[in-house]
Amino acid sequence: MNKIYITTSIPYVNAAPHVGFALELVQADAYARHFRLLGHDVRFQCGTDDNSLKNVRSAEAAGVQVTDFVNANADRFERLGGLLDISNEEFVRTSRDPRHIACVYALWKACAEKGDLYRKAYEGLYCVGCEQFYEPSELDDGRCPEHGIALDTIREENWFFRLSRYGNRLLELVETGELRIVPAHRRNEILALLRRGLTDISVSRSAERARGWGVPVPDGDEVVYVWFDALANYLTGLGHGSDETLLQHYWNGGERIHVVGKGISKFHAIYWPAILLSAGLPPPSSILVHGYVTVDGRKIGKSAGNGIDPEGIIQSYGTPDALRYYLLRHIRSADDGDFSAERLEAAWSGELAGQLGNLANRVLALLSTSFDGIVPPVPDSAFVDEAARLPGKVAQAFDAYELHVGLTEIFAFIGEANRRFTKDAPWADAKALLADLTPEDRKATAARLGACLAEQVYGLAVVARCLLPFLPSAAATLHSRLGIPSPRLYRVPLMVDGAKAAPQAVLFPQRAAA
């Protein structure tokens, strides 16, 4: 059993959450659930970045006190996790968690004692959206390459961190895979930045510019720069600087996985490992970098006016599984992917309901009428062998950070199961059993029908098990319909012979037209 600590990034709370962040939540949750089912000791953390200057400016624009503004939006992010059935053990709000300042100060103190913090006057171009300084050569026609907005010119004397001291060590970590960055093209981007050379970074800003909001610099009149503050959240939930029992168990003693968007990969793959090295702590083990959710090819943004409310989608379908399925199957794990309500509905009605739901409903209805719901012995067959290979294919998809491939494999098998069920036409055998047959013909017909239904139930049971990390609610319901317990571990033997299945209601009901 390995110890695994997995986190999402913590989003700014300058507006309500949109469907783009839901992608990160469900990806990380799928991994956390998958690792638990493998038998690993998993701790999963989410949270919010409350101390961003973006939050301050958005609160001012709304005419609301910053504390009230931040708390209201942070509440919505935390609620979204519950609505999406996210299985995190911890949720850290950086402005409210009493452990967070202690954690930031412990990191600051360790970096200072290492000689990696110093004072410097600085002038530079700053993007509030990115919360970072840019060099003129990095701009797109003088504007932020990420947000397309004009930058602020900032002149301050700040605390700086000696990032340049750690360039060679970071290069070694990434090149050897000790710090794994997936996918390969994101790893190559980080390698290019490291080989170009690193410059030191500001880790404080004036309290005046921050409107006094944020973590105060120890023994100073500034506030800690948001990225030093925000990145520390990964240790806050483990008690760094306070009770470090969880820190020793998970961070120092286990695998450390961050799931982040491509726009912040540099901070997680360069700034954060360097700060940890300075503080004498292990760097992350893996950084899984996903793309953006787009609408009509345009990145969704909280301030871009094209946000899609995930909460409304979940309420509309009455389950988180419609949105979870779309984001995990129809958006490639490491790439940008477009979202539309029409494609979401097509995925629900055509794939979840039309393929999986329809198959389960037909099999279980026939099993109920022909065998009183009792599953006959599962035969040896090529179809059963194919079903038995499915979990390995899904595991390979997790290993490769290709969750969409895992779901594609599952639904390819479901498609084959539907074709086989149609070809076998077991309803004809069920009807024949109602006719006047000879004992020999009745026995042969019942055996053929029983074998068909049993292997289909076995296939559905494998599908249910494989779906547990992706669609936990639907997977649990399918297990219940099949009359078998939902396992806590993959390795629990899959036994369906003699189970008492029940058709009950349809698995994915068709929705009324809007």
TrEMBL record:
Q: Which GO terms describe its molecular function?
A: methionine-tRNA ligase activity
On whether Aminoacyl-tRNA synthetase is a keyword of this UniProt record, the answer is yes
State the UniProt keywords alphabetically: Aminoacyl-tRNA synthetase, ATP-binding, Ligase, Nucleotide-binding, Protein biosynthesis
| Species of provenance | Rhizobium laguerreae
The protein's Enzyme Commission number: 6.1.1.10
Q: What is this protein called?
A: methionine--tRNA ligase
Give the Pfam families listed for this entry: tRNA-synt_1g (PF09334)
InterPro entries cross-referenced by the UniProt entry: Met-tRNA_synth_2, Methionyl/Leucyl_tRNA_Synth, MetRS_core, Rossmann-like_a/b/a_fold, tRNAsynth_Ia_anticodon-bd
Q: Does the keyword Nucleotide-binding apply?
A: yes
The record's listing under SUPFAM superfamilies reads:
Anticodon-binding domain of a subclass of class I aminoacyl-tRNA synthetases, Nucleotidylyl transferase
Annotated Methionyl/Leucyl tRNA synthetase domain ranges read 135-364
Q: Which family does it belong to?
A: Belongs to the class-I aminoacyl-tRNA synthetase family.
